[in-house]
Inverse folding.
């Protein structure tokens, strides 16, 4: 078993609270010393009580799925002798009501675009198989109830 942790810190400071008019801005702290500004999404909690310059949990969820998929894809491509020169994913998460009527991230679409160098270029079938295997191996995708789809951008 491997454990992962993050420290999330919010402080009220001098602002009100009981009137529900308080900043949702907070900080994420990670083991390597990185500190990330975070907030509720302005789509959920309106400005000025959200910080639109900070990462919100919904964006982080989508980025986490995309990052995990990419890391597996890169590893699998290298193992098969395909040199990835660039990988970019414009991932999209959909917030909607789930079967229980609760708001949830009901769908995440990964849309990776890759460019390859070298002489060994994957066929479209090989590229799709790499993405399929990366999806199957992704720890984060295996951990969520939401549908996670991968639609690579080809060309």
């Amino acid at each position: 078993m491997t454990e992962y942790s993050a420290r999330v810190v919010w402080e009220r400071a001098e602002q009100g609270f009981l009137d529900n008019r308080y900043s949702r801005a907070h900080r994420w702290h990670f083991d390597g010393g990185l500190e990330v500004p975070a907030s509720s999404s302005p789509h959920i909690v309106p400005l000025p009580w959200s910080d639109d310059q900070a990462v919100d949990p919904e964006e982080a969820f989508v980025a986490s799925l995309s990052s995990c998929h990419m890391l597996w894809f890169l590893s699998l491509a290298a193992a098969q002798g395909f040199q990835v020169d660039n990988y970019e994913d414009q991932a999209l998460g959909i917030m909607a009501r789930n079967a229980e009527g609760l708001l949830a991230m009901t769908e995440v679409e990964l849309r990776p675009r890759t460019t390859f160098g070298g002489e060994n270029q994957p066929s479209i079938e090989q590229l799709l198989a790499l993405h399929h295997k990366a999806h199957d191996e992704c720890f984060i995708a295996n951990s969520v109830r939401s549908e996670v789809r991968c639609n690579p951008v080809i060309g």
